[in-house]
Amino acid sequence: xxxxxxxxxxxxxxxxxxxxxxxxxxxxxxxxxxxxxxxxxxxxxxxxxxxxxxxxxxxxxxxxxxxxxxxxxxxxxxxxx
Length: 81
Description:
Elements: H1 4-26, H2 29-56, H3 67-79
């Protein structure tokens, strides 16, 4: 009757309906506020990470000047390589 996409859409619709119903009728005000606060925290965290990534876009790191690479080269040179 339904193909895979139709079944997936039907399942997602049913899960959404159950979630909205639980939010409206099962949760008390304190639980709703806690859930909203958690959602806001996730959203703010996402925006902070996204902004940090945007700020660093286009920055190139010169691998030759990294402290660990310099130290490793010096160790290899001391060993005779």
